Amino acid sequence: MAEAKKTASKTTQRSSTKTTTKRISVTVDKDFYMDLEAYTHENFTTIEDFVKKAIKEKLDRDRISTMIDFMSKR
Questions:
Q1: pLDDT at residue 48 in the model
Q2: Could you identify which of 24, 28, 39, 60 might form a hypothetical disulfide with 32, taking C-beta atoms 3.0 to 4.6 angstroms apart as the criterion?
Q3: What are phi and psi for residue 21, nearest 5 degrees?
Q4: 5 φψ region: left (φ > 0), alpha (ψ -120 to 50), beta (else)
């Protein structure tokens, strides 16, 4: 039984060192990518930061819309 506890603690230690980020991939056509690249260059940001910000804004906007819908149905 003592060995099982040691194994469990080692497993816990390993899992706590894993990263908490996840990678996603998006495919866009060449013209769209060129527009995105130009926009991010003009606005002194990276494509990665722009996409993260755009996704966050969309999620926040949908959450607010859902809350408004919920409150108006009361």
A1: 96
A2: 28
A3: -100, 155
A4: alpha
Cα 33–chain centre separation: 20
**CA dihedral over 43, 47, 49, 53, signed as positive or negative:** positive
Tokens of 59: 């999620």
Q: What is the largest CA-CA distance in the chain?
A: 63
Helical ranges in the chain per DSSP H: 2-16, 30-42, 47-72
Q: Is 67 a domain residue? A: yes
The domain total for the chain is: 1
Residue 70: give the domain boundaries.
Answer: 26-74
- The reply to whether the predicted model has a pTM over 0.70 is no
Query: How far apart are the C-alpha atoms of 32 and 43, rounded to whole Å?
Result: 16
